[in-house]
Design brief:
Blueprint lengths: L3 E2 L4 H6 L8 E6 L1 E10 H9 L15 E4 L4 H11 L3 E5 L5 E6 H9 L10 H19 L19
Parallel strand pairs: 1-2, 4-5
Antiparallel strand pairs: 2-3, 5-6
Helix pairs in contact: 3-4
Length: about 160
Amino acid sequence: VAVADENQNLGEFLRNKEYLKYSRIPLYSGSDENITGYVFRTSVMEKLAEDQHNMKLSELRREIVVVPFTMVLFNLWELLLEKKEHIALVVDEYGGMDGIVTLEDVIETLLGLEIVDEKDTVSDMRKYARDRWATRQEKYKLLNQTGQAGIDENRMTTG
């Protein structure tokens, strides 16, 4: 997870190219375990275009949704949709940071598929898809010993 110190100015933020990969960057205060919110990369870039290099990230900070690590995936989905948010802070039973989850993570988990976005490479996704298909074949016994689809036509029903 790429996180930024909320007290750094926008000019310092810009020098770290790692942040440019993400649309939302969590902010911390003191320790990178103490997440205080997040910023939109585009908001930072807009202020930089206005030559506000000395502005602190904390001035652009947005509230972050906080969820327990025990939250059911579907409930997380509903919460993010209700709040119109794409990012949440996951905390452990003591309130410490357990991780960051995005709406994309939730969708990928619900669908069991990887979403291809601008930072993914086609070759990586093809290999990933082949590996996932092989895993599903084994798990669900999709192919029989002759390599044909293992569909029992007697068990098929129509609506």
